[in-house]
Design goal:
The protein is of the alpha/beta class. It is 26% helix and 16% strand. It has three helices and seven strands. The radius of gyration is 25 Å and the shape is elongated.
Amino acid sequence: MRLSTEVELPELNMTPMIDVIFQLLIFFMLVTSMESSDVEALVVPKAIKAVEDKEKSDKRIMVSVAHKEIECDSYTTLKTDPRFKKVCRQAGHWEIKFRKQAYTEEQLGARLRILADEVRDTNDREISNVPLMIRADQRAPWEQVQRILVVCVSPVYKVMIWKIEIAVELEKVE
């Protein structure tokens, strides 16, 4: 009786591992896109100069000024439409949004106060250290942005946020 001297090496089947890798890849792609979907899709104003935000806070509050999804003679989201460059001056066509939900000034004030209370200054309990970024459509009248500013500093709402940022897109100057 002869014994075989050859040792049979085990096979490594890579197919299940590749399947798992692809599923993880798909999962992380979906989670990443869902995470950034809290903000409105807007065309923010262009600026020649701006200070880049290097210290991105995860406590930052983002509030948007967006056009309601209604038919308007002076507003469109299509860049090829001639109305794209027009400004809609009708106050009732614009809304303040936080996490894609529309808010009145009173509702926004109440919501911001809750968030601002979490990060109050230890020396001055009246002032909040939470940063707030205003993302306004470039065609929005600035009166809409002013409404958010009033909510942030008015003693009526008791929000008292002073770190306010305006989102812009840097314009390339040639």
